[in-house]
Design a protein that fits this description.
Elements lengths: L5 E5 L6 E5 L7 H7 L7 E6 L1 H17 L3 E6 L9 H13 L7 E6 L1 H13 L5 E6 L2 H7 L4 E6 L2 E8 L4 E4 L9 H18 L1 H13 L8 H4 L1 H21 L14 H11 L6 H18 L5 H13 L11 H9 L11 E6 L2 E5 L4 H13 L4
Parallel strand pairs: 2-9, 3-4, 3-5, 5-6, 6-9
Antiparallel strand pairs: 1-2, 7-8, 10-11
Helix pairs in contact: 1-2, 3-4, 5-6, 5-9, 6-7, 6-9, 6-11, 10-11, 10-13, 11-12, 11-14
InterPro entries: Dehydroquinate_synthase, DHQ_synth_AroB, DHQ_synth_fam, DHQS/DOIS_N, DHQS_C
Cofactor: NAD(+); Co(2+); Zn(2+)
Keywords: Amino-acid biosynthesis, Aromatic amino acid biosynthesis, Cobalt, Cytoplasm, Lyase, Metal-binding, NAD, Nucleotide-binding, Zinc
Length: 379
């Protein structure tokens, strides 16, 4: 029988879909596919990575086959450096070998890289087949798996190749986080903090309370959070993402706020070399720098920036900007996919729970903020 879960609906006009969150749901994956109207006998390509396949692949496969799906598993290497056209081609080759049809399905079982690659491959195979996202990292659970954005990196910048392709279902089982390395968990907490800053003051205060109980690492691991708070932050983060996506599916306006910390974070990833920093670590650094820019522009207070810094520190995330040439950072920003008519758009906080989008950030202000971020560690 299916486990108890919380359902959050991404209320798109054309094709709404559920985000299911609950411990033990991975074993009911096949049941939920049938419930979503995917018939038994459908050909399924399950894309995963070696570690996830070793820990969770057999359980997912058993559930799918028990529900009558015809499944082939493709294991691809994980890591940001694998987000490239060659990986997509490997998935396309497997789709061809498994004879996937327009009624077939790709299941992404893994973190953000697997989700992005499998999602993009699904969007482009036979001009688009269904995809189901089964995230296994905290970052993918709260962000990457929800919303239909898929992206492939280009040597000139992160996620410059991509498509919007909404999943049929997102299934989140927090129990799989037991096998997630702590560094990966901490990286995911950066996205949770992002949601708190951009639009959820209640979540921000919940995180502060956990951090105050253990300032040195109260947000840095699954065990430190505990199952109740973990379930709560998964639900609130997923609900926040669902609201924004429903209001702006293709990032025409409001959805851009989800890029808080990402503009400068992408520059960190690009200039440092993909794989040096985890995506969430780079986003955390980007939020710190964006907060300093907001203080310099009078958009939010130093006190709120200090509150953000304390949360990022309590999550065990990097606190010092890497040794990057500021001029190279400015050049990298111009390659960001959010640039409009040559102007870099920054998501900047105006208070805990609110942000604004600005395209008038002076390069001098950026340089000064990077100098501050480089020189100041945890408070």
């Amino acid at each position: 029988m299916p486990q108890e879960s919380r359902t959050i609906t991404v209320s798109l006009a054309a094709d709404p879909y559920p985000v299911l969150i609950g411990g033990g749901l991975l074993g009911d994956l096949g049941f939920f596919l049938l419930e979503r109207g995917i018939p038994s006998g459908t050909r399924v390509l399950m894309v995963t990575n070696p570690d996830v396949e070793a820990f969770h692949g057999a359980r997912a496969l058993q559930s799918l086959e028990a529900s009558g799906f015809v499944v082939r598993t493709l294991v691809i290497e994980a890591g940001e450096e694998q987000k490239n056209p060659a990986t997509v081609a490997a998935i396309h080759d497997a789709a061809f070998a498994h004879r996937l049809e327009r009624s077939s399905l790709i299941v992404a079982l893994g973190g953000g890289v697997v989700g992005d690659m499998a999602g993009f491959a699904a969007a482009t195979w036979l001009r688009g087949i269904a995809v189901v996202q089964v995230p296994t990292t905290l970052l993918a659970m709260v962000d990457a798996a929800i919303g239909g954005k898929t992206g492939v990196n280009h040597p000139g910048g992160k996620n410059l190749i991509g498509a919007f392709h909404q999943p049929k279902l997102v299934l989140i089982d927090p129990l799989v986080l037991a096998t997630l390395p702590e560094r990966e968990f901490r990286a995911g907490m950066a996205e949770v903090i992002k949601y708190a800053v951009i639009g959820d003051g209640i979540l921000f205060r919940d995180l502060e309370a956990a951090a105050e109980r253990d300032p040195s690492g109260g947000l840095a691991s699954r065990d430190a959070l505990g199952p109740v708070l973990l379930q709560r932050l998964l639900e609130r983060s997923a609900a926040a993402k669902a609201r924004v996506v429903a209001a702006d599916e293709r990032e025409g306006g409001l959805r851009a706020i989800l890029n808080y910390g990402h503009t400068l974070g992408h520059a960190v990833e690009n200039l440092s070399g993909y794989g040096t920093w985890l995506h969430g670590e780079a986003v955390g650094l980007g939020m710190l720098a964006a907060g300093d820019i907001a203080v310099a522009m009078g958009l939010w207070s130093q006190a709120d920036q200090d509150r953000q810094r304390r949360l990022i520190a309590a999550a065990g995330l990097p606190m010092d900007w890497p040794d990057l040439d500021p001029e190279a950072v400015l050049v990298s920003l111009q390659a960001d996919k959010k640039v409009r008519q040559g102007k870099v758009r920054f998501v900047l906080p105006t208070g805990v729970g609110s942000v604004t989008i600005r395209d008038d950030v002076d390069p001098t202000t950026i340089r000064a903020a990077l100098a501050v971020a480089t020189s100041i560690g945890a408070p």
